[in-house]
Amino acid sequence: MEYLLLPFQQPVLLLLIAVGVFVGIYVAAIPGLTGTMAVSLLVSFTYGWNVNAAIALMIGIFNGASYGGSRSAILLNIPGAPAAVATALDGYPLAQKGEAGKAMGVSTIQSVFGGLIGTVALVLCAPLISKFALKFAARDYLLLAFMGLMLVGSLGNRSIAKGIFSAALGVLLGCVGMDVMTGLQRFTFGNTYLMPGINSVVAMLGLFGASEAILQIRTKDLPIIKQKVDKIIPNLETVKKHLRLTIQSSFIGVLIGALPGAGGSIAALIAYDQAKRTVKKPEVPFGEGAIEGLVAPESANNAAVGGALIPMLTLGIPGDAVTAVILGALFIHGLQPGPTLMATTPGLFYLICICLGISNIFLLVFGLTGIKITTKLVEIPRGRLVPMIIVLSVIGSYALNKNLYDVFWMGGFGILAYIMKRYDYPIAPAVLGIILSSMIEKNYKMVVILAETNPAGFMGTFVAGLFTSPISLVLLFIIIFSFVVQSRWYKEWQNKRDKKRQM
Fold it and tell me: In the chain, what are the domain boundaries?
């Protein structure tokens, strides 16, 4: 337990946490530069460091990067990270109304709240949540992915058909490249550059960034909207009003973050969907600048940081891409995360917990500073802003793999997204489809392989598992419920019911 006081006894650790948070925020705010990339570069940099110093810096970057992607999402409609896709849905409309400062203030406060709840969950519930995560079978991950695809009604326009088409297109594009299990090439047409597949960040830069640049060209004559930055920090009444939604979204973030391979992006999207279903009377509709549309995803994606650390520390299984890199770094430093961690090196667990808690305090400080300067980005004339967006998108897509083909993909996705927007097809479900495609494919194949060893065959094994596993039953119920409430007949029945109540 003395490790909880270690950062206060060694001020250099506090400094490293602060530096990590600052770097994480501004690296993730640049489209294409992710927290995973920053932590990966850090591993070789800290190879000869003391393990405590390396952990402090990595945790700071991890937490800062989970928040930083929201800045470009709000200001430019370009999510700096996949977890910020949901933030852009209401954050960018707020910026278009001149309230970018308010949007960034709310996102900062909610990220801090979510991060603190995630830290508490890590300290108190790590063994319990890790045991729950272990109960998820391949079938359950497949259902979870399908549940994610059913969010299309919350991420796009009112047409569920167009949303499903967009999500299915994303899943199809996510299948381009080599099969991870068999090594067979799919949709590569003999081109070796297509073998690695499509990076979800490249797709995101094209679908959001490049398409936004094209739209900005069409609206270059519109007047520049001056941003209100006199009131950045939300008042106590606003915080209290959305406290229930904050707690709800944070718990979603912790639970989804604790599932290996899920991460903050899926947590943020599921939290956004739940907010849309549970908030009855938002001040403005979701998708048009609703504060609730910022509260939910920003609370969830930072709470998912604590959640993702739970399976890494207790089971030795990374919760997402960043924790996979951190796990490798711990092995390099001679540590052994997993079931024996608490018995062999309990100090490491408590040090990570206190570093995560302190990083949220620095997140509050750095998150609320610099907002007045960064909001000026939205007030730049469109003739200058469009080249900046294009340059950031090109640099971001090329920097990922140093591959020129990624730049071509980004441009192609930009044109595709522009056409989709012109015909009112939502963009976010396509990004979700690309993100979830690998989870769907991998777990579907796992289910098939397991079924081959069972005499009942695929359908017998899968269906029997659905009705004998409580987790599978709950997920199946949520999928059916999501489909029903988004159907046209349900909405017509709901409208008739509301009219009768008003009479």
Answer: 1-136+235-396
